[in-house]
Write a structure and sequence with these properties.
Blueprint lengths: L2 H14 L6 H12 L10 H19 L1 H11 L5 H27 L1 H7 L3 H21 L12 H11 L9 H11 L4 H29 L4 H31 L6 H19 L1
Helix pairs in contact: 1-2, 1-11, 2-7, 3-10, 3-11, 4-5, 5-8, 5-10, 7-9, 7-12, 8-9, 9-10, 10-11
Length: about 280
């Protein structure tokens, strides 16, 4: 992988990680469609993707810094009694929503690594992601609840939905938003909670994969490329977050539909180009 390819992948990662269109699906399909001849199943590719995710996590931390500041201050007890209780409740919900992804990620790590090099799987799951988004809009709960009313069961169910994103083509943000819609919250709140729980999931992946990148004997040039990619992904992810929060605030009716049809069209188009 050269520097230009890494920058393009980083830009796509920053845009697609938070949009409900699957960053992993794009990361698998883009090299295949562009004719890039590097081994996506090589040991350094997954850690490279994780570095891009670190850039995305940094963007989320910066964008939602007020949320995280209030959570940390409340968690440590440096706030009034109500804020302390609310912060600890929200942190517990984030942990509950994260547990399924941590467990399933550890169990399926090697299986998921093999799928990274499989464009056919990405095509299938990208089309499935589009169908999932449309289904989520169709089956969303009729009543509307505030984000503050989420229960531990709601958080755990949303966390289970998040686990479908281990398949390259299923969007993590899209799946968690579908889970939120089915639990009765609107698109903006579903996106807000999805972005909050993304941070510990991405951080956990980094804890596991970055040491592998350092131990794998990866050339220093690859380390530099990974850091550059993380920066590019972070800048674009910040802009994507700002856009999406505005978009979901203004469009609460079938807001996921454009992304669904995009995934279906991309999956079908990629299938024609790759396998026709």
């Amino acid at each position: 992988m050269n520097a230009l390819q890494a920058i393009v992948l980083a830009a796509v990662q920053g845009a697609t990680e938070l949009f409900p269109v699957s960053s992993l699906g794009h990361a698998v399909l883009l090299p295949a469609l562009a004719g890039w001849h590097f081994d996506r199943a090589e040991p350094s590719f997954l850690p490279f993707l994780v570095m891009l995710h670190i850039g995305t996590a940094a963007a989320l931390l910066i964008y939602f810094w007020r949320d995280w500041w209030l959570l940390v201050v409340g968690l440590l007890g440096f706030a009034d009694q109500h804020q302390v209780a609310e912060s600890r409740r929200v942190v517990a919900l984030i942990i509950l929503a994260t547990i399924p992804a941590v467990i399933i990620g550890l169990v399926l790590e090697h299986f998921v690594q093999r799928l990274f090099g499989t464009p056919a799987a990405a095509v299938v799951f990208l089309i499935a992601n589009g169908a999932l988004l449309l289904l989520g809009e169709r089956l969303r709960a009729g009543s509307r609840r505030a984000l503050e009313t989420l229960t531990p069961l709601d958080a755990f169910v949303i966390g289970l939905w998040q686990c479908t994103a281990f398949l390259p083509g299923i969007s993590r943000s899209g799946a968690t938003m579908v889970g939120g819609l089915m639990r009765g919250i609107d698109h903006e709140d579903a996106a807000h909670f999805s972005f909050l729980i993304a941070t510990p999931v991405i951080g956990g992946a980094a804890v596991l994969e970055v040491p592998k990148l350092l131990r794998a004997g990866v050339p220093h040039q690859m380390l530099g490329i990974s850091l550059l990619g993380a920066l590019v992904a972070g800048v674009i992810a910040f802009a994507s977050t700002a856009f999406l929060m505005h978009y979901f605030r203004r469009h609460d009716t079938w807001a996921l539909a454009p992304f669904a049809w995009y995934c279906i069209a991309l999956g079908l188009g990629a299938a024609l180009l790759l396998f026709a």
